[in-house]
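REQUEST FORM: STRUCTURE PREDICTION
Request ID: SP-0412
Submitted by: Lab K.M.
Chain count: 1
Length (residues): 161
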Amino acid sequence: MPLEYSIIMNNKAVLPDLASQLEGLYGRKNWRTLWQIYTIDRNWDKIAGGEIARQSRPAYIQNNILWIFVSSSVWMHHLQSTKPRLLAGVRNALPELAVDDIRWILQPLEPLKPDTPSCPPPERTQDPEKIRNFEQMASTVENSECRAALCRLWRAFQKFR
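STATUS: Completed
RESULT:
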C-alpha cells in the first residue's frame, strides 16, 4: 500500500505504520543496508555502552561485516576484546541483520570548516625572462582582451606553482 493512502475501516481512517512503510521503501530501493546502519548508529549508545560509544561509531556494512569507526588505535586494540559482546548486542538490536564479524577502522579526520582561516600558499617570485617568453607567445592571440586575460591567468598560476 503506498504511503500516502489510508484505508477507511468502520468510518475511521487507518494510517499505515510509518516505520514499516519506510523500511519497505528502503528495501525496494536496495537501501536496506543503509537503513540497518542508521538503526545501529541510532542505538549505538545502548549497544556499545557510554564510554565505547563516545570513542566509536558504526561506519558501514560490507559482506556481512560491520565496520566501526574508532577514535584511536589504542581504542581499536581495546575494542578487540569486547567484540563478542558488541556482536551479540548488534544481533539483539537487529536480529534480521546478518552480521558475521565486526572490524575496526580509524575515524577519518574532519575536513576544515569553510569559516576556518587557511594559510594561502607562499607566492613565488616570477622570473622576468619567463614572463617575457610567455607574453611573446601570447602575442599571437589577436583579441587584445583575450590576450590580456590569458597573461593575467598565467601570472596568477605562476605565483603559486
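NOTES: The domain at 16-106 is CATH 3.30.300.180 (GMP Synthetase; Chain A, domain 3).
Reviewed by: T.R.
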